[in-house]
Design a protein that fits this description.
The protein has 113 residues and is α+β, with helices and mostly antiparallel strands. It contains two helices and five strands. The two termini are 28 Å apart. It binds zinc ion (ZN).
Length: 113
Protein backbone atom coordinates (compact mmCIF):
# COMPACT_ATOMS: atom_id res chain seq x y z
CA UNK A 1 0.00 0.00 0.00
CA UNK A 2 1.73 3.15 -1.18
CA UNK A 3 0.09 5.39 1.46
CA UNK A 4 2.39 3.82 4.07
CA UNK A 5 5.41 5.10 2.15
CA UNK A 6 3.89 8.58 1.89
CA UNK A 7 3.24 8.74 5.66
CA UNK A 8 6.67 7.32 6.55
CA UNK A 9 8.33 9.93 4.31
CA UNK A 10 6.29 12.77 5.84
CA UNK A 11 7.16 11.65 9.40
CA UNK A 12 10.84 11.20 8.48
CA UNK A 13 10.93 14.70 6.94
CA UNK A 14 9.42 16.18 10.09
CA UNK A 15 11.15 14.21 12.85
CA UNK A 16 14.07 12.39 11.25
CA UNK A 17 14.26 8.67 10.62
CA UNK A 18 12.55 6.87 13.52
CA UNK A 19 12.11 10.18 15.36
CA UNK A 20 8.89 11.32 16.94
CA UNK A 21 7.20 14.49 18.11
CA UNK A 22 7.43 15.61 21.75
CA UNK A 23 4.97 13.62 23.88
CA UNK A 24 1.60 15.35 24.10
CA UNK A 25 2.09 17.39 20.94
CA UNK A 26 -0.66 16.96 18.41
CA UNK A 27 0.57 15.95 14.98
CA UNK A 28 -1.17 17.48 12.03
CA UNK A 29 -0.77 15.90 8.64
CA UNK A 30 -1.66 18.10 5.72
CA UNK A 31 -2.81 16.01 2.81
CA UNK A 32 -1.73 18.30 -0.03
CA UNK A 33 -2.69 15.90 -2.78
CA UNK A 34 -5.89 14.00 -1.98
CA UNK A 35 -5.57 12.16 -5.30
CA UNK A 36 -2.80 10.04 -3.80
CA UNK A 37 -4.28 9.02 -0.44
CA UNK A 38 -7.47 8.85 1.62
CA UNK A 39 -7.49 10.99 4.77
CA UNK A 40 -8.90 8.18 6.95
CA UNK A 41 -6.11 5.85 5.80
CA UNK A 42 -3.49 8.54 6.50
CA UNK A 43 -4.82 9.13 10.04
CA UNK A 44 -4.85 5.39 10.77
CA UNK A 45 -1.33 4.83 9.40
CA UNK A 46 0.13 7.86 11.18
CA UNK A 47 -1.25 6.68 14.52
CA UNK A 48 0.11 3.20 13.93
CA UNK A 49 3.56 4.42 12.83
CA UNK A 50 3.89 6.89 15.73
CA UNK A 51 3.02 4.10 18.21
CA UNK A 52 5.69 1.95 16.55
CA UNK A 53 8.16 4.80 17.09
CA UNK A 54 7.36 4.77 20.80
CA UNK A 55 4.66 7.41 21.18
CA UNK A 56 1.97 5.62 23.22
CA UNK A 57 -1.01 7.91 22.59
CA UNK A 58 -0.42 9.94 19.43
CA UNK A 59 -2.86 12.75 18.69
CA UNK A 60 -3.20 12.79 14.92
CA UNK A 61 -5.26 15.16 12.85
CA UNK A 62 -5.46 15.15 9.06
CA UNK A 63 -6.24 18.32 7.13
CA UNK A 64 -7.16 17.85 3.49
CA UNK A 65 -6.42 20.68 1.08
CA UNK A 66 -9.02 21.31 -1.58
CA UNK A 67 -7.96 21.51 -5.19
CA UNK A 68 -8.76 23.94 -7.95
CA UNK A 69 -9.58 22.39 -11.32
CA UNK A 70 -7.09 23.56 -13.93
CA UNK A 71 -9.72 23.27 -16.66
CA UNK A 72 -12.77 25.08 -15.23
CA UNK A 73 -11.46 26.73 -12.06
CA UNK A 74 -13.96 25.06 -9.72
CA UNK A 75 -12.72 24.13 -6.26
CA UNK A 76 -13.22 20.53 -5.31
CA UNK A 77 -12.14 17.73 -3.06
CA UNK A 78 -10.87 14.85 -5.17
CA UNK A 79 -9.90 11.45 -3.78
CA UNK A 80 -8.22 8.35 -5.18
CA UNK A 81 -11.67 6.96 -6.01
CA UNK A 82 -13.07 10.23 -7.45
CA UNK A 83 -10.11 11.78 -9.30
CA UNK A 84 -12.21 13.97 -11.58
CA UNK A 85 -13.70 17.45 -11.24
CA UNK A 86 -17.35 17.30 -10.14
CA UNK A 87 -18.13 20.36 -12.27
CA UNK A 88 -16.56 19.61 -15.65
CA UNK A 89 -15.59 15.95 -15.31
CA UNK A 90 -11.95 16.35 -16.31
CA UNK A 91 -9.28 14.61 -14.20
CA UNK A 92 -7.30 16.60 -11.63
CA UNK A 93 -3.56 16.81 -12.22
CA UNK A 94 -1.32 15.18 -9.60
CA UNK A 95 0.59 17.79 -7.57
CA UNK A 96 4.37 18.02 -7.64
CA UNK A 97 6.17 17.56 -4.34
CA UNK A 98 5.16 15.55 -1.30
CA UNK A 99 1.56 14.39 -1.03
CA UNK A 100 1.65 14.80 2.75
CA UNK A 101 3.47 17.26 4.98
CA UNK A 102 3.55 17.15 8.78
CA UNK A 103 2.95 20.09 11.06
CA UNK A 104 3.41 19.79 14.82
CA UNK A 105 1.73 22.34 16.99
CA UNK A 106 3.38 22.97 20.35
CA UNK A 107 0.18 24.15 21.97
CA UNK A 108 -3.29 22.68 21.92
CA UNK A 109 -4.71 25.98 20.71
CA UNK A 110 -6.92 25.22 17.70
CA UNK A 111 -5.44 26.40 14.46
CA UNK A 112 -7.40 27.98 11.68
CA UNK A 113 -8.11 25.53 8.89
ZN1 LIG B 1 -13.36 21.29 -13.71
Amino acid sequence: MHETGLVVRALDDAFGSDGMPPPGSPVELVLRDPLRAESSTIAFLAGLLLRERGLPHPQVRVVVESRRCAACGATGMPSPTTPTCSTCGLPYRQLDGPAIVVAVSTSDRPSCV
